[in-house]
Structure to design on (291 residues):
């Protein structure tokens, strides 16, 4: 899968690599399908009910989870290949067992071609739980169509394949592929300015009062990059394994940090660690380091 912000690397960075691994590349939406090379098939994971983009490749495969998705495509004359999305414990879009036949009938009536079933599982639960859900679906599904699954570990996926040699399974790999060894990944930002400040000084968009003598540290990451305080309000910035004080919410391309006078302060050009999920971060620059 190559979707969203490209798992922090950017879709344009990952797309050629994905193309070497498979002739099918799953993307997040119809607006991302044009990123897929013409030599490969784009599998669009999110159903679409609006106007289809004019640049949507004719070979793209759309996901449909109910009759409304079929009707939306049909009114625009779209008659391509379709993945049928199945309901799971995730509770998002997906047809129920009771509505599966009705959806299949609507797809055929609108001259679309089902090419696979798809099921998407939550992060909670075990791989064994997810396999059980898949096996509950199997008797209801056309055995001639592959089943695309997600969030199974390697052993569970192997057991699923071995337990049902008469069925074809495909596994969608995203985070586990691109972030497989997380210890090899780091997210940092540059210190772009520092200056001494005194207790009582007023700084920032919101007129924050400096609590004690120290240094104001400005770093080149902010809301434009998807960087903000952690859910519990703590700063996401660290230096020398110590959390730095975030004076106010990050704004656009800069965040304002404070370091008390008695503590080690990063200098101009130093790197500050950023505690953010890569899938939520718009990265300015990638650095590939050989170890």
């Amino acid at each position: 899968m190559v979707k969203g912000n490209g798992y922090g690397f950017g879709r344009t960075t990952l797309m050629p690599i994905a193309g070497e691994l498979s002739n099918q590349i799953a993307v997040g939406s119809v607006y991302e399908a044009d990123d897929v090379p013409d030599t490969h098939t784009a599998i669009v994971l999110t159903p679409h009910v609006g106007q289809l983009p004019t640049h949507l490749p004719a070979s793209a495969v759309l996901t449909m989870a109910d009759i409304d998705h079929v009707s939306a495509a049909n009114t625009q004359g779209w008659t391509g290949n379709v993945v049928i999305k199945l309901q799971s414990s995730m509770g998002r879009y997906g047809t129920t067992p009771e509505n599966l036949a009705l959806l299949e009938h609507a797809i055929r009536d609108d001259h679309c071609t089902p090419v696979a079933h798809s099921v998407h599982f939550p992060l909670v639960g075990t791989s064994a739980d997810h396999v059980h859900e898949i096996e509950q679906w199997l008797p209801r599904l056309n055995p001639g169509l592959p089943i695309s699954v997600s969030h199974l570990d390697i052993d569970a996926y192997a057991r699923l394949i071995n337990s049902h040699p008469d069925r074809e399974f495909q596994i969608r790999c995203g985070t586990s592929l691109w972030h497989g060894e997380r210890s090899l990944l780091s997210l940092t930002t540059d210190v772009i300015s520092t200056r001494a400040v005194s207790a009582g000084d007023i700084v920032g968009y919101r007129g924050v009062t400096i609590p004690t003598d120290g240094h104001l540290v400005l770093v080149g990451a902010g809301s434009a990059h998807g960087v903000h305080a952690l859910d519990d309000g703590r700063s996401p910035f660290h230096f020398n394994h110590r959390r730095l004080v975030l004076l106010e919410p990050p704004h656009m391309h800069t965040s304002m940090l404070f370091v008390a006078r008695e503590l080690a302060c990063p200098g101009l050009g130093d790197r500050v660690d950023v505690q953010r999920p890569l899938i939520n971060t718009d990265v300015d620059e990638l650095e590939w380091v050989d170890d």
In short: Residues 11-21 form the longest helix (11 residues). The two ends are 27 Å apart (CA to CA).
